[in-house]
């Protein structure tokens, strides 16, 4: 297994220090077998960056990975997601220049085995798309949510 080399901070042009030397990626998983499609969120543990807020599973990209590989690996590590149960629909790039966060939008029929799988999160939940913005969101997710929301709704149409 290649060495993990993505861990580290980047001082970004936006004035924020971001995690991930080669950027970062996360998974927006939409469960489509319920009456209303639902987004998987995790509550970040208090000791983590952005602790106590709801976020997508994700983390630093390693130099040998593409962002889909990173997002699926992190979703498996953090939430036990069975990545063979997913269909990738879209990748949204939040490009800051020196740093990029790619959000991979995927669908599943069923819960894909989602659970709390490591100490970085303390709770997991499925939220209807329209209710996500009423939660206390991680600042990064909050910033891109409106774009992600419209892409998520679009992803249901094709
Ligand atoms: Zn930035």
Structural commentary:
The chain is α+β, with helices and mostly antiparallel strands and 158 residues long. The chain has a single domain, classed as Nucleoside Triphosphate Pyrophosphohydrolase. It has helices at residues 67-79, 139-155, and strands at residues 9-11, 17-19, 24-31, 38-44, 54-55, 58-60, 86-95, 100-108, 121-128. The longest helix is centred in the last third of the chain and has 17 residues, at 139-155. Bound molecules: zinc ion (ZN). Zinc ion is lined by residues 12, 14, 16, 18, 96, 99. Zinc ion binds at residues 12, 14, 16, 18, 96, 99.
Uncertain spans, ≥5 residues at pLDDT below 50?
A: none
The CATH first-level class comes to: Alpha Beta
Q: Report Rg.
A: 15 Å
Reported by name, the CATH topology is Nucleoside Triphosphate Pyrophosphohydrolase
Q: Which small-molecule species are bound to the chains here?
A: zinc ion
| Order of H and E elements | EEEEEEHEEEH
**CATH homology superfamily name:** Nucleoside Triphosphate Pyrophosphohydrolase
The largest sheet is: 7 strands, mixed
The computed structural class is alpha+beta
Give the number of helices. 2
Helix content: 10-25%
Based on the structure given, which CATH architecture is correct? Alpha-Beta Complex
> How many domains make up the coordinates?
1
Can you count the beta strands?
9
Query: Roughly how many Å apart are the termini?
Result: 36 Å
Shape: globular
Average pLDDT over all residues: 94
Residue fraction in strands: 25-35%
